[in-house]
Design brief:
three-stranded parallel sheet; single chain; 55% helix; alpha/beta
């Protein structure tokens, strides 16, 4: 299954909300995340906002996972 996920869902998942299960399912290979370069850039830009206090290493891990476990459409 291929899925496009809104940035708000990604952020909520990384903040430990109820939507964390979506991140977990993606990491477990339950679906392929489909992104464009613009969407990937938006994910990373928003996750790096200081107000979310997400560790840089966690954002870097997410970026690496985007490159390896996503269907990127340019």
């Amino acid at each position: 299954m291929r899925v496009v996920v809104d940035t708000n869902i990604i952020v909520s998942g990384y903040l430990g909300g109820a939507l964390e299960g979506i991140i977990v399912a993606w990491k477990a290979g339950k679906f392929a995340l489909v992104v464009s370069k613009a969407i990937a850039d938006e994910y990373l830009k928003v996750l790096r906002r200081p107000k979310f206090k997400i560790e840089r290493a966690e954002v870097d891990d997410f970026a690496a996972l985007l490159l390896t476990a996503s269907c990127i459409n340019f």
